[in-house]
Every structure is written in structure tokens, then in C-alpha cells.
Amino acid sequence: MKTMTCKQLGGACEEKFQANSFEEIAEMSKKHGMEMFQKGDVEHLKAMDEMNKLMAKPEDMKVWFENKKKEFDDLPDK
Ligand SMILES: [Zn+2]
Questions:
Q1: How far does residue 32's CA lie from ligand 1's centre (Å)?
Q2: Alpha carbon of 20 to those of 1, 46, 51, 67, 77: distances in Å?
Q3: Ligand 1 geometric centre to CA of 29 (Å)
Q4: Given 7, 9, 43, 73, which residue has the most CB atoms within 10 angstroms?
């Protein structure tokens, strides 16, 4: 299991997610992001806005995703 925070995954808080694969942890952070979005959390709304801007540029999104995946892969496995 590896741990990453909401912030590390492009979010806005220190909420921790644990998963065995990057795809899994990305999914968890996405779900959390949606929950916070529904609650109208301003910091997460801002973070989501940034992510949406990134997603509008597939090349940039790809680079971001690859970098985050590498960050995840480099984490110590606990
Ligand atoms: Zn969060």
C-alpha cells in the first residue's frame, strides 16, 4: 500500500488515500474531489478548476499524469 494526499494529487487538503496502484489512488482522489465539490468547498473548487484547465490540454494532462504516476511509483511500499 502506498499513501498520497489530496494535495499531492492535485487537490486541496491533507486527506490521505491509500492504494496499491496509481489508477486506484487517482480514482479515490477523484471521488473525494467530487464529494468536496458537492459540499461547495472553496479550496477544492479552485483545485478542480485548475485540473479542468489542465484536462483541456491533453498533452499537459498526460505529462501531469506521468509525473504523478512516477511520484507514486517512487513512494516506499508499506
Ligand atoms: Zn481534499
A1: 6
A2: 5, 28, 23, 17, 9
A3: 7
A4: 9
